[in-house]
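haha ok so turns out i had the wrong file open the whole time. this is the CORRECT one, sorry everyone. sequence first:
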Amino acid sequence: MGVIQRIKKPTTRKGKKVLLSREPKAIEGPKQCIFLQARNPSERARRVLKDIYDLKKPDAAYLSRKNDFVPFEDATLIEKLCYKKEASLFGVSSHTKKRPHNIVLGRTFNYGILDMIELGADNFKAMSEFHNMKVLAGIKPCLLFNGPAWDLNEELKRLKSLFIDFFHREKVESVRLQGLEHALSFTATDEGMIYFRSYRIHLKKSGQRTPRIELEEIGPSIDFKLRRTKLASVDLYKEACRIPKEVKPVTKKNLSTDAFGTKLGRIHMGKQDIKKLQTRKMKGLKKTPEEKKQMLLKKKQARKEAKKGNSINA
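then structure:
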């Protein structure tokens, strides 16, 4: 027999507010992330994690305290911290002789580990080494994924989805051209290398309506090497990606749009008698006295025939 977990009801207004904030929502906002240090992180690994934290701000928390654990062996500490901080994303920095300058990125579902991907920072140039103007914190970046490997490799597919979760912010219906200031580029190769670059977008005059685009690298610049992965099963991944019914668009039947953008509708009607349709009342369409007399005579004859038929049946 399983142990029945006792659910304590909130007794204060603040407790009710906290429980409501932790309930699943149909439309989610930006995902929160925590960054923490594992066993003996190197200086490069800590700086890589700090720069990713600066890109993720303000939807992130950076924990500088060292923790003696290995994510791929025991991830209970990550699950506890994600539950405490109400975060669904996490990043961990570590360093060993076998896996130097190690970065583990992952996400949770229902406060349990969903995906974990281990990356090695082979080359790194910090954001502070680029002496130019940076973008403001909280700006929605434009994500660019270069190379066919993102769609051919199953591990890179999950990594692409993980990067989108990390840097995705509020959902917008339209994009203003002047609002595009930051671009993040991810280039994947067949050898398992991922080149992470960050650019500031400049709109220059071109003499036309469309401006000329120039990219200025602002850092960080990281060359990641794909190492170990711990991915969720197909069924669990489908459950995590399930869209609630409230968000799904309702399809309207019998509506179509032609090539010119005109909306067309189909209406289903019952069988109609054209002679009984009410038309517009006009003097020219009125019946003459002779037509009215003929109509009365026809009705009288129909009544007489009906009486005769009833008497014969009797």
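The radius of gyration is 35 Å.
again sry for the mixup
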